[in-house]
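Protein Record: Sequence and Backbone Structure Tokens
======================================================

Structure line: whole-number tokens from a learned vocabulary of local backbone shapes, matched to residues.

Purpose: to set a sequence beside its fold so the mapping can be learned.

___
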Amino acid sequence: MPVGLLIGSYSSVATATTPIVDFVRSVPGIAIIPLLVLVLGQGISMKVCIVAYVTVWPLLFNTIYGVRGVDRVAVETARSFHVSTLRTWLQVILPSALPLILTGLRLALATGLTVAIAAEITVGTQDGIGYFILLQSYSGMHHDRIFAAVVLAGLVGFFLNWLTVVASRRWIAWDSRGVQ
């Protein structure tokens, strides 16, 4: 988020970082799993890195677009009343950008859960829902256990989405677009 706030706030920073960001984000997250396994092994650090890599993009871009979408009249009005930069950020820019930032968070959580489970299945780590599904498929296709693991993954995803919806309703109840 801080990087997105910085890039969204200053066009010179956006111009300087856009080629780098566009290049790095165009590498599919799943494609870097073998590289991460070579460097980090099959443990938790590999999963954390791959999840961080794929979740940074929705949060970064929604933060950038949220800051760029702030009503410039509101910012200029705050400046004309000699409101401090910090107070302008806290009372004008961040509240205006928050709906998109929270949307980015919702997307990042869903993507992160999917990629974490996919990484556990493809790499064969020693823990997690994906590992459990893989283990059950190797040990005689226990359909009931696989189904239970899939339901558990769905419940985790549902709970994470519910948390962001509750946070959105609490923090941005004023947003006319509403939270579904």
